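Structure ticket #2291
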Amino acid sequence: MSPFSPVDAELVPYLAASAVIDFHHPLVAAKADALAAGATSDAAVAEACFLFVRDAIRHSADWRQNPVTCAASHVLRHGTGYCYAKAHLLAALLRARGIPAGLCYQRLRLDPAADSERFCLHGLVAVHLRGIGWYRADPRGNKPGLDARFSPPVERLAFAVTAPGEADLPGVHAAPLPEVVAALGRHDTWDALLADLPDRPA
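Resolution: structure written out below.
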């Protein structure tokens, strides 16, 4: 439980540990404690965790870095992950501090500039903040043209949903989508996953 805010019963599933959101792993628990040191609110803890995952964990495709990671502890150990895996780590760090966190997704064109008809899911985190409710944050990592920030109550995501076929998929999920976990488990290298990114029609 968060030391700053009580948790409503309907948010309990968003505090659970799992094989993917494995916040009881010693590495994850220790990092969550370190990031929360000195914080005076859930929002401050959430921002510290967001900035760490966004900036210190390398996006696998941006950096062409292996291995493909999925579980939060694996992401933290290797320092790399696709957007989905980075979202798993951020959710785990938040839950470790008693802050409800879930997973949500966008459906995006893989290459809008080329007018591609290929779509993929993009993984986000929703954190429940007292007085605000669910707030989406995108820890994928910034680069030229992408500027995701943590500035509640205003969302600052990396990608805007603008092209035909793109969508903000509904719902905040307590567990990752099965097709996301399956895709991360199918491949060992960043480029193999890039050629087989998960998708779900809007």
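Closing remark: Strands lie at 58-59, 80-81, 101-109, 119-129, 133-137, 149-151, 154-156, 167-168.
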